[in-house]
Amino acid sequence: MRFIFVGGCPRSGTTLVQKILLSHTAITGSREFEFLTPLVQLYEQMRTPLQLERQSYYYTGEELKKYWKGFIEQLLVTQVADKNKYKYFSEKTPLNSEVAIQLLELFEDSKFIYIYRDGRDVVNSFKQANKRAKQAGEKVYWGRKGSAFIWRQRMQSYFKLKEESRFKERYLAIKYEDLVSEPERIINQMMLFLGMKVEEKQLQPEKFTTKEFDERIDKAWYTKDLFEQKINKGNVAKWKKELSLFEKIKCQVIMADYLRDSGYPVSRFYLAINPLYLGVRRLGGRTLAGLGLIR
Q1: Considering its fold, how many domains does the chain have in total?
Q2: Is 3 helix (H, G, I), strand (E, B) or coil?
């Protein structure tokens, strides 16, 4: 059984992609395995030349890879009852995008699906989720500025992956707006990438249901209505109506260059301000660090 890793920025459609994948009879998976990224990051630390030298009594580079790969495989698939029934295990956690290169190196026969979305709609989706969280008395996560930087960070990871020509046949980038506007075409592209045929249920992910996912419904991030909605292109460009003028300015100043590079329209004003803002922010961070005010 091979692995599919799904990643991207939160609120970009990773859950929709996972529901489409798990609707196929030859693909299994479960909820997000939240420790995959820190485990892979620890593996990366352990296999640096310095650590390989210091820890040579315990392992070589090849031994470490073998042990770590087996350990992660056991963690992910231990609950799969009939492993011969499935061709793929799909692990969907947005943070996977931060270690996409390492995952593809560690699991040589794996595939990676990265989904990205207009960052302004991502910020707006965080805004709406935080509203629901406040109403439910739950923890509020990143604000508008924080979610803009999270989106920017995940796009940086995606562009690093794009630079790795050795993986060009093993990852697929999906634009959220294309998926919800032309679902049949994009789902066909996705399954062709995996070497499989589309099944009818995959075109109706709103009907997907398992106990593992149902437990998340009615939370701020996954309400029942959101989870069970049909593929909906009405979620595109909602930021234009739902973000305030200040929010639109702030997030576009932060995101402008990556909005442009990923094919989203953004005005020249924000493209001009973007490097100045980021430069001042980096300089300010180094100044504060030099003064010992931040680490």
Answers
A1: 1
A2: strand
